[in-house]
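Nitroreductase
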Amino acid sequence: MSKMLYGKEHVKRYVETDGEEGHDWRGTTVAILTTTGRKTGTRHSTPLIYQPYGDAYLLVASQGGAPDHPLWYKNLVADPEVELQVKGDRFKARARTATPEERPDMWRTMTATWPDYDVYTTKTSREIPVVVIERI
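Tokens:
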């Protein structure tokens, strides 16, 4: 897969190939999260680094350390009913932000697969959310 695969093209190729293209990316793993737009009601699919965590999956709403949360995170806060695709497995799920008690271990899990998350925390004053995706 091309290193330049990202955004809409990443989603398209991932969905078309059941993750054969796009799941393995820059030494980590990517899933496709689909949320419902909080203003438009339109479905939006975003490729995101993930890690399994027990029966759930973890995502990080980092936006590279930007000062504001990514739109996909704002959407799932407004409507936690989402869809996640991990390789060929597409399923309905409920999204939630990790609790303060859960977050430290979950953060370590995510920084183990993408160490730049720790760098992103130095670029923003917001606490970067860890998102827990639970199959329903």
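Helices lie at 7-16, 71-78, 103-113, 116-121.
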